[in-house]
What does this fold into?
Amino acid sequence: MKNILVLIHDDDGQEARLQAALDVTRAVNGHLICLDVALVAPFVGDATGVSGGAMLLEMERGAEALNRARLEPRLANEGVSWECVDTMDYAEPALENAATLADLIVVNRALDSLPEPDMRQVAANLVVKSGRPILAVPDSARGIDVAGRALVAWDGSNAAMAALQAATPLLRLAAGVTILEIDDGSVKLPAEEAATYLSRHDIKTMIDRMRTSPAGTMILAAAESGTYAYLVMGGFSHSRFREALFGGVTRRMLDESPIPLFLAH
It folds into this structure.
């Protein structure tokens, strides 16, 4: 994990995702790619929408130029390798296109200053479509304690295994790792398999096995306990249709988790 991609845009969530990206980049001695996106957003313009759209795009470009001018001196003093890349697009395709050589994408979970995009939806789609792990941080976060305790939500699914493997470079830096298994009859591989995998990377773990449900409630309670710095879990281990129809743990955690989520699919 060396190439960290973060969305740069002048909105309420920028500080949360930027500080988290800086913390991860510094911890892994990596390279930070700041994707400065002038967002193309829906608008209400004149009869044709052309002049109104042009005006809004020009305003967005100007705002992002000022935003980058404010950020670059800070980045220069953060002690990390970094670069800024400019683009104009919708948030999701911009991040997906830029993620080709990224090892981790850092986003936040809301973008309250604009009606679009829905960053929870962007994060959910990126988990499935980008082929890269996602670090989704709440807007209230001020970085991520990479050296703190980590929680791994485990059900033995392919998504859980992908998340565990992708997060291993970070888990190696954690003060401790707890594997939380919700034994509701759907566990495909026991948590001991995950513990064995991590032990081969010199990562010691504890297993916390619960036999109550629903899984989302148990995982959220652990995330809210104040014990853990971040949560590692598989994203959308069930089909997106099933998640949409019945709800799902991934969606709930994106909506409610007070700690950063490390997601992979």
